[in-house]
Each structure stands twice: as structure tokens, then as C-alpha cells.
Amino acid sequence: MTAVEVSVVLPAYNEADTIEETVSVTLETLASFLPEGSFEVIVAEDGCADRTPEIATRLANEDDRVRHIHSETRLGRGGALEYAFERAEGETLVYFDTDLATDMRHLEELVESVRSDEYDVATGSRWMAENRADRPVKRGVPSYGYNTLVRGVLRSDLKDHQCGFKAFDRQAFEALAPTVQDEHWFWDTEMLVKAQRRGFRVKEFPVDWTPKGDSKVDIVRDVFGMGSQILRTGWELSVSPRITPRVSLGAGTMLVVVALLLMTQYLNPQTVLDEMAGADPALIAVSAAIYAVSWPLRGARYRDILDTMGYHERWDFLTGAVFISQTGNLVFPARLGDGVRAYVVKARRAIPYPTGFASLAVERVFDLLTITALAGTVMLGLAATGSAGELLAALTGGASGDTARSGQTAVIVAAAVGVAAIGAVGVIVASARTDRNFVRSAVGRLSDDSYADYVAGVVETFVADIQTVTADGSAFARVGLSSLLIWTLDVVTALAVFAAFGYQLDPSLVAVSFFAVSVGNLAKVLPLTPGGVGLYEGAFTIIVAPLTPAAIGVTVALSVAIVDHAVKNAVTILGGVSSMAWLNVSLTTAVEESRSAGDIEPETTD
């Protein structure tokens, strides 16, 4: 009996109308150039909801060259192909779309390119000059744009990455498949790109291709899904290998150094140091004590958020977890410390990673909303009372100079972010009061594709976690009130530093401090430096300098910003180090574990 050399996989999802003819044509074509018994045709039926499973089972019973591999749940196009290839018997692994859009006369060239051991991977192409593919505008324009983007971002030499007509040598497949993260439509593109990067021999040849059925161009999948996967793969292949913890920390430090060097072009560093040296140490200590009070409030708030999700923990443990995660943000760039908290509650209290990340997301929404509300309330109050004419003049363009214009721009940006945050939370709160699924209906208007279901599911999970808090009136009130107290204390800390520099806390300075601290914390959202060092000081300074009376200039504003941020970071590090010792947590281990969280294998059946 001849051993199976070639395995052809037909990925099938709800193909009851066409699968029988596709299998018949495939068998006939393979028999025309391969020895009898040397090939098999596998129907990779991916959780179908129609009669495809029944038909595939019947075809397999009638012809021993046909196999039916079934999955109870949807694996996605890439997932279904991997699942079938792993169970195939041949050394040459082939697949093509079941609509037979590619002319089957090209099948021999596809198979023999790999079977002959001349190439490791072979793929048909609709974009080579020699082919005669008939591409309607609705398909051609997105396809051309997509392939251009892949070639540019991922540095691929191929013209067409998504033609559903490919073959792999088994050894190449087994080497590449574990490195491919996508399980949907980007799977074959990722396989091709990584095959080229790994040095495998890849053949691209022109094919005649005729579109079958309606176009499946999809806004959600093709724009958001595929685009994000291109960026993710580009980061993985070109950026991530170069970003070690040492490089990250060094780059963040260099940004701060460059910023400080640029400041010396218009500021005398000695003047800044002299201003800082003149601050009252006792009031600096008071500012640190004020800021320290906010941390138990952070732990209590996090306890309230987790309570609504069904996990009940002590506030002191959660305060320690928050301390450790914020310390991680000071040490590592790109806010890697955020994931540390999910690791700590998982490792010490068995709270699942999804809940840890979701609760952190809820906390961030309340933070952003509270910061915006504080700044907005102060601005409206001043506008109503007319007690700060210079502030209003600066905001409306009455103030002059480059620094004043920078302050106006910063406030406008902060206001725009704030309005967006308020609008988003308003929609979530409103949707929590109704049974309607706004996410599913909104995505459904854009797409009915399976990838859209995946996108909707991710968004739904995030929104549902926030709705869990917003739907509980008492929990919402507690979390909202604690957020208000936390960020008010953040501002009061800065005011205590102003007092340490000898400034009277009049209404104008208080109002400006609310703006400066709010915009400074919004600037820290950008993960450009560890702990936002340099970003906070810059935003704080360009707000305080133009919006306060002439007695406070750029030098003083920068000095206050540096001391204010240093006090807050010192309290954070002291609390973080103490918490790590108390909970026996390694920060580097926590970062690595949190980065690898979420790699869950799908459950499948044969």
C-alpha cells in the first residue's frame, strides 16, 4: 500500500451547498498527477451550523481517500487549518479555499513545488504580472492596499499574501506553526512572513483566479483586525527583539536626560537647584504625608471594584498590590507595571488574570473620569464667579507669548480627552441600565463576519466589567467618591509643595494647581518614560507658568514640579519595596509572568 505523501485540507464553515462538488473536483485533479493511494483530502469542518458535518461524514465513509476532521467550537480559519494539518498524514501539506476560485490546473505546480523538495513553502499569487486574476474594485483595492502594507511594514518580498492556495513542507509547518499567534484570516500571512524571516525557501507563482460569490470585504476584520495584526507582527519581529529591560530603561533615562539638557537652553540649572534648596523641609515632609494617605484609599477602592466582580479581599493586601504595580511603572517603561498587579492578585489570592486586568481597566476609567471632572469643575467655577481673570484670559487667548500658547494647547488637549472619557463612561452607564447589547448591535452594523464576533466579544468583556460596577449604585458611589478623594489628595500634595516654596495658597493658585496636576497626570498616560518622569514636569510647568500671576515663572514652576513628582515617586517606591518584602514578590518575575499571561490553548475535538 502506497504511503500518503500529500494531504490536502479544505477549510469548511457552512459549506453544505458546495463541499461535495469541491471534494469531487479535488480528488479528480489530484488523481491526474499523483500515484494512487499517495494523497488524502481532509474536510476541516470548523463548528458548522448547517449540514456540512453530515455531508463530510458521508463522503469519508464512501471514499477512503477522504477524511472528516470535526471541531465542536469555532477555531477560526487559521486555527482550523492548524488543527487539521497536525492530524494529516502527508509530508506535503496543502490547502485552498473551497469555493475553487483559483483555477485547479495550478494544483500540480503548487503540490510539486514542495513535494519535489525544491521549496519549503509555495503560494499562488493574484498580483503578479503574468496572471489573469479578475478582481472587482471592491476586492482589488483593499487587497492591493493590504499587500502593500504587509510588504512595507513586515518587509516581505511577496506580492500576494492572502491567496487561498498554499502548500507547506511538514518540517517547515511544524517549525512555523508554534510561532504564529493569529488564528483567523491573518494566519497565512503570518506564516509566509515568518517563513521568509526564518530563511525557508518560498515560491510565489501566478495563478488564474475568478471571484466566487459575494465580496467579503469587511470593515472590522480587514481594517481593525488585519491592520492591528500587521502592527503586532511588525512589533514582534522588528522591535520587540531589540527591547530588553536594559535597553528600555536606558532609552527612558536618555529621554529624561535630553529633556533636561534642552531645558538648560532657556533655564539656568543652578537657579532651579537654588529654588529647590530654599524649600521648607518640614512642609516637604507634610506633602509626603498627605500623599501617603491616598494609598490606603487606593487599596479600599480596588477592594470595592473586585467586590463587584465576586472577589473579596482585604484592603491592606490590595494596597500592597497597588504599591508594587505602581513601583513597576516607575522602573519599567510602557507601563509594564500595570500587568504586575494582575500577577500579584493571581499568585497570592488566585484571582484569574482576566479579572485582574479587567479590574485594572475599570480603575483606569474612574481615574481618567475623576481627573477630568476635577479640572472641569474648577474651570466652570472660576468662569461663573469671575474670580480669576488672568486664568480666563489665558484660556481664551488674552495672554501672550509662546509659553502661554503652550499652556492653552495643553488645556485644550486635556479637555478633549476629558470630554471623550465622560462621553464613553456616560454611554457605558446608560447601557448598564438596559438589556440591549449596544456593542454587538454597533459592530453588527459594520460587519457580520466571524472576526467581527471576536472583536465584539473582546469589547463586550471590557464593557461588561465596567457595567458591573456602574450597575451597582452603592459600588459606583464608593468607587467614585474614593477616586475623588485620591486625586484631590494628589493636588493637595502639590499645593503643600507650593507652600514649601513660600507661596500663599490663594484661589488662583489652587485652581491652576488642579489644572497642572490633572494635565501632568494625563501626560503620564503616554508610556514614553518610566513613571512619566519628564512628561509630568513638562506638562505641569507649561500650565503653571502662563496661568499664574507673574510672581511664578518657568523656573519656579519647574522646581515645584520636580519636587512634587519626586515626593510622590519616593512615597511610591518606599511603599512598593515594603510591599514586595511583605508579600514576597519579585518585580522582574512579576513583569515577565504578567506579559506571558493569557496564552490559552483552545479546546478542540477530533
Protein model, in words:
GO terms for molecular function: glycosyltransferase activity. Belongs to the glycosyltransferase 2 family. One of its GO terms (cellular component) is plasma membrane. It holds the Pfam family LPG_synthase_TM. The protein is built from 23 helices and 7 strands. With 606 residues, it is an alpha/beta fold. It has a 7-stranded mixed beta sheet, with helices on both faces. Helix 11 (281-308) packs across helix 14 and helix 11 runs antiparallel to helix 19.
Provide a brief overview of the structure.
This protein is of the alpha/beta class and 606 residues long.
From the alpha-carbon coordinates, what is the Rg to the nearest angstrom? 30 Å
Question: What is the structural class?
Answer: alpha/beta
Number of helices: 23
Amino- and carboxy-terminal Cα gap: 25 Å
SSE string, helices as H and strands as E:
EHEHEHEHEHEHHEHHHHHHHHHHHHHHHH
The largest sheet, given as strand count, sense and whether it forms a barrel, is:
7 strands, mixed
Query: How much helix is in the residues?
Result: 55-70%
GO molecular function, one term: glycosyltransferase activity
Family: Belongs to the glycosyltransferase 2 family.
Subcellular location: Cell membrane
Membrane topology: Multi-pass membrane protein
